Input
Amino acid sequence: MPDIGRKTWALPGSNIPLNQNGREPEFTTRDTLWMLNTTGDDATVAITIYYADREPVGPYELELKARRVRKVRFNDLIDPEAIPLETDYGAVVESTVPIVVQQTRMDTRQAENTRTSNLGFPG
Amino acid sequence: MPDIGRKTWALPGSNIPLNQNGREPEFTTRDTLWMLNTTGDDATVAITIYYADREPVGPYELELKARRVRKVRFNDLIDPEAIPLETDYGAVVESTVPIVVQQTRMDTRQAENTRTSNLGFPG
Amino acid sequence: MPDIGRKTWALPGSNIPLNQNGREPEFTTRDTLWMLNTTGDDATVAITIYYADREPVGPYELELKARRVRKVRFNDLIDPEAIPLETDYGAVVESTVPIVVQQTRMDTRQAENTRTSNLGFPG
Amino acid sequence: MPDIGRKTWALPGSNIPLNQNGREPEFTTRDTLWMLNTTGDDATVAITIYYADREPVGPYELELKARRVRKVRFNDLIDPEAIPLETDYGAVVESTVPIVVQQTRMDTRQAENTRTSNLGFPG
Output
């Protein structure tokens, strides 16, 4: 199996809304990061969060094991600090091995949820 | 007509929800794989499914004929084993000829469906 | 202004549903092709439609003028033949000058529409 | 931190609908441009708007500071002129330093909003 992906990815546009409808956690409004590591080596992943009006915060460190997928809610990134709600942010994801990164957003501010999905931009 | 595409594609983020609303199969919650083969040669396609907490499963083998498009629901991949519902997974698609791969998700857990679509990441 | 884009694009996954809700034409279920020509030359665009179970059909020829955007509904492609409803298809777009191609789908089969959007795959 | 991105991006398909539902500005129908500058230098960004039936308009100039994200609603671009509603347009984004560009659309013409998101095409 070939190693697929890149070591650096950018996700320019995110914002975690405050309001939501529906059962939790199934319909919690969320921004989700998906990562796929097809290589034979465990990855150490470092996420940096960029804001509109202050310096970037990070790294948020995660492990992504060899031959595994991992889903992380940005809402759950709390060390070094939680991402504030209703705040525009972007993210850069750096990995020690090539990975593939996708972002999925679920917006449940209205009664019926709407979702978007796109790959990151490979650096 | 030029041959368009790549032989390896990654789709990092999927999850087939258990609950749904609406008539079946039109509104069955689903993850769908689209493949386009513009070449003059039939393709043999091998799909490998990656999970969060166990080793990858595959290959799931499919045929994609020359100059054809093919849509496959991940729900319908059953050999060597069905993909469990409510489980995070990613996929790698490998083809013997260049193809183009897209993923479409329809979520019908609420009364009004929502859909997402994105190309795979070319390896 | 630099010339942006490619001369060949692939859109692997489309299907024009039969059923719809809402006022026409605003909420007609549709698959839409967007094309942007940033160059100083008019483009001749040739679209080929790929099917699951028969030979490709085309070319559908269109003009896209210099420094212009053009939106085309796949529903409106009728020469050499209309694309049948409820049928899986893919498209290849070839242009005489570099262009940028995006696909937007609006699904109005249920009361509340849902939309998806993605760039084509550059050949 | 590496500089991620490109200096030129294209967004081929946009249209700001006239009608909307829900509280303003939270559910104002909108087309949004997201930009991420991971470099150590402030960026000057010039946006050119392409139309279907007249010459391009621009540049619309914006600043994007070093190590910052910025969200801009196309509805708010007014100098040299506002983008008319219900009109097809595309955009080219040029920056003095590498940036990453994403487009998010929220359509609130019906009671329940639907959203789409995709990266720009890097020039």
User: Anything to note?
Assistant: The CA atoms of residues 8 and 123 of chain C lie 5 Å apart. Chain C touches chain A at residues 112, 114, 118 (CB under 8 Å).
